[in-house]
Amino acid sequence: MPTRRKPDQSAPDEVSPTGAESGSADSRAQSGDVLTTAQGLRLPDTDHSLKAGRRGPTLMEDFHLREKITHFDHERIPERVVHARGAAAHGVFRSYGTKITRARFLAEKGRETEVFVRFSTVLGSRGSADTVRDTRGFATKFYTDEGNFDLVGNNMPVFFIQDGIKFPDVIHAGKPHPDREIPQAQSAHDTFWDFVSLHTEATHHVFWNMSDRGIPRSYRTMEGFGVHTFRLVDAAGNSSLVKFHWKPVAGVHSLVWEEAQIAAGVDPDFHRRDLADAIEAGAFPEWELGVQVMPDDSTETFAGIDLLDPTKIVPEELAPVQPLGRLTLNRNPTNYFAETEQVAFHTGNLVPGIEVTNDPLMQARLFSYLDTQLTRLGGPNFTQLPVNRPHCPVNDMLRDGMHQTAVHTGVAPYQPNSLDDGLPATDPENGYTPTPRRVEGNVERADPVSFEDHFTQPAMFYRSLTPVEQAHVAEAFTFELGKCYEQAIKERELAVLAHVDTGLAAVVAQGLGLPVPKGIPQVGEVQLSPALSQVVEVPGPIAGRKVGVIADSGSDLSGLRTLRKALTKLGAELLVIAPAGGFIGSGRSREVVQRTVLTARSVEFDAVLVADGTGHAPDIKTVILLQEMYRHCKAVGAWGDGIEVLTGAGVPENGPGVLHADSADKTFTAELVTALGLHRVWERADVVMADAV
Ligand code: HDD
After folding, report:
1. From CA 527, how far away is CA 316, in angstroms rounded?
2. How far, CA to CA in Å, does 306 sit from each of 144, 256, 376, 442, 457?
3. Residue 587 Rama label (left phi>0; alpha psi -120 to 50; beta)
4. How far apart are CA 689 and CA 427, in angstroms?
5. What's the gap in Å between 593 CA and the centre of ligand 1?
6. What is the DSSP string of 139-162?
7. How far is CA 113 from CA 348, 531, 638, 649, in A?
8. Does ligand 1 come within 6 angstroms of the Cβ of 366?
9. Predicted complex ipTM
10. Is 81 in the pocket of ligand 1 (CB under 6 A)?
11. 361 Cβ below 6 A of ligand 1
């Protein structure tokens, strides 16, 4: 397990392991010392093409040049049409045991199953920034002993459309404009708002995107959802309808909008880096998998909610999430392309005990995933790639095709056969057999009537948020619609908002300088679901969090070390920020400088402190850093005369969440840990919001 920590900012002292690590014994990854061609021919030189004289033309016979350039010319494959930008990790899932399904990886208590998880943004291209406002993908491949099960979910529990036939419409609207191909990786543009303002079944998902869920702090602090209702079947054949949930052990936390925007510039790889760093540091990201369980009766509804409608949730207060097991991500991919890029998920990868439902969005997905991989991965044999290969025996009768790497034995890849002793044979007892379900009705292109309610659940979502979260939603709508050029689109979306909440519509209208829509009936009283809010009152774990300490050679470095010890114990990290790179202090008390005031920016820290004895006057970069920390509602503090630097930078002395102490003692550390565990000091946000909205 490569848990060794790379020294921050220095080059890795050994190259990444290759091939064998990924579980492929026959991997042809570079494993020797001498450079060869793809045919294994040793090469004396790879920098000069073969020429007729030093100043002459290049010769056609230079097979090394041709092989090198040809291979390079074909290095790229089509990026995913959606979810192109992603980051992934290997891990393990440990089951708590359950009677609700016969799927062995869930049913057997303590059973461990290897997994590969890929997180992604939806709209941006492969090279786009991580922290854009968007839905995040959360796709998990469980390599179970009964075959691969893929849970291809998102960090939001609802979707823009109720029927998969509209997927090309919503994606065409969300992707950059076809003429200029801008903007990249975001929905703040006319075509998106044109579509969703006309197509109001998208409203619930739009509200989730405009909330803090659209800008997660980290992949590690995101919830995940299977979105659709699935059918779980137990050993006796009894079935239940369920919705899958991933609950992050680190808590559900987000960035604030300005942070997300700054991060997109100063560290476009913010989430990718965070995931890899956390795993490398041994702060393994963890989630609990759980299900909301509803009876599988003929109504396919629960508490009046249509379970086949993917724009609706079942509030957790009505159906609590029952834990099934724990996922731990503990190994970074060895090669981005081989693993993260070539992994192929498919909602149709199911195992006995887990079945689909008639949700029309899910039904279309069952077609799309296999289909898209044929183009993306160049043919039908992508299941043989190491990252896609099941970890259980595979005895199919699929043969030949592009990129066939298996050397199949036998002469009878057909059934029935006698020449290969009738094998491989089917297994009627243990094979995957969906529970019989009755299907009847007229052939028609139409939705159930219950699909027509587009506003009640967005109202429940919005009204269940705390005031500060609601203010963020208002800001997000104001920002995104403010980026549209067409007045008619903005006005139409304001009318949609008025259906959900007239107060919200009024605030956004004011921000846009447009009249408040009148005479639109607002959704009446709704049952709230407090579980939808992310704001926590009890501090959560701080593993993987980053604390910056501004210091110089005159600073109290022993206090700094005491603090580091306490934070490291809890899995958090302390980074020294000094006026220049290199070291501060001398001899045995020397400290490596990880950031300079020039390279440090608020986004990468969860708290910033100033050490006692830090003599340098707060220059403009330090002032920006400390003020951004304060404005982004994160903990800031100082001990000893470091307080002067803090106040000199304009951080209010008695401001909420501003930590002052004489020394970096236990009380100071405890206060810091609490502040980190609460994630934000939202009392400050009220002040900011009063100015902004
Ligand atoms: Fe999808 C990729 C999640 C609806 C068609 N989807 C993709 C990925 C995730 C989701 C996480 C990236 C997987 C990876 O990391 O490789 N998609 C969802 C969710 C949906 C959803 C949660 C609704 C509940 N998707 C959806 C529909 C269709 C697709 C309705 C088409 C009818 N999705 C695709 C795709 C992709 C994909 C075109 C692109 C790349 C890929 O599959 O492998 O097939």
Report:
1. 12
2. 31, 34, 35, 20, 12
3. left
4. 63
5. 43
6. EEEEEEBTEEEEEEEESSS--S-S
7. 19, 29, 46, 51
8. no
9. 0.99
10. yes
11. yes
Q: Say what angle helices 257-266 and 620-631 make with each other, to 10 degrees.
A: 140
Residue 71 bears catalytic tag: no
pLDDT digits 0-9 by tens, 139-171: 999 999 999 999 999 999 999 999 999 999 999
Sign, CA torsion 56/59/62/66: positive
Q: Tell me whether strands 546-550 and 573-578 are parallel, antiparallel or unpaired.
A: parallel
Which structural domains are found in the chain, ordered by start?
86-384 (2.40.180.10), 455-532 (1.20.1370.20), 546-692 (3.40.50.880)
Are 161 and 195 in contact by the 8 Å Cβ rule? The answer is no
Among 347, 353, 350, CA closest to 367: 347
Structure tokens, 84: 């192109």
Strand partners, 306: 301
Q: Which of 325, 254, 338 is nearest to 19 (CA)?
A: 338
- Taking the centre of ligand 1 as the mean of its atom positions, its distance from the CA of residue 154, in whole angstroms, is 9
Contact 114, 310 (CB under 8 A): no
**Two tokens, residue 334:** 């060895």
Instruction: Say if residues 605 and 626 touch (Cβ distance below 8 Å).
Output: no
Share of the chain above pLDDT 70, in %: 94
pTM of the predicted structure, to 2 decimals: 0.94
Tokens 């392991």 correspond to 17
Q: Give DSSP secondary structure letters for 648-667.
A: HTT--TT-TTEEEESSS-HH
What SS3 state is found at 179?
coil
Q: Collapsing DSSP states into helix, strand and coil, what is residue 204?
A: helix
pLDDT in tens, 12-59: 333 333 333 444 444 555 668 899 999 989 999 999 999 999 999 999
Q: How far is CA 416 from the centre of its chain?
A: 46
Mean pLDDT of the chain: 93
Respond yes or no: is residue 83 known to be catalytic: yes
C-alpha of residue 167 to centroid of ligand 1, in Å: 9
Pocket test for ligand 1, best of 85, 161, 340, 369 (most atoms within 8 A of CB): 369
CA torsion angle for 670, 674, 680, 683 (degrees, to 10)? -90
Atom 26 of ligand 1, nearest CA residue:
365
SS3 283: coil
Tell me the best of 79, 81, 82 to mutate to test the pocket of ligand 1, counting ligand atoms within 8 Å of each CB and taking the most: 82
268 preceded by a cis bond (ω within 30 of 0): no
The 10 Å CB-count burial string (b at 16+, else e) for 530-563 is: eebbbbeeeebbbbbbbbbbbbbbebbbebbebb
**Alpha-carbon torsion (591, 595, 601, 605), positive or negative:** negative
CA angle 176, 194, 161 (to 5 degrees): 85
The beta strands (E) that lie in 76-127 are given as 86-95, 112-121
Q: What is the rounded distance in angstroms from the CA atom of residue 362 to the CA atom of residue 162?
A: 9
Backbone angles phi, psi at 114, to 5 degrees: -70, 145
What atom of ligand 1 comes closest to residue 153's alpha carbon? Answer: 22
- The rounded distance, in Å, linking the Cα atoms of 183 and 670 is 44
Is 164 close to ligand 1, i.e. is its CB under 6 Å away? yes
Phi, psi of 602, deg, nearest 5: -50, -35
- Alpha carbon of 345 to those of 47, 115, 409, 570: distances in Å? 40, 12, 28, 35
Q: Write out pLDDT tens, residues 328-358.
A: 999 999 999 999 999 999 999 999 999 999 9
Q: What's the pLDDT band for 177 if we cut at 50, 70, 90? A: very high
Instruction: Indicate if ligand 1 lies below 6 Å from the C-beta of 139.
Output: yes
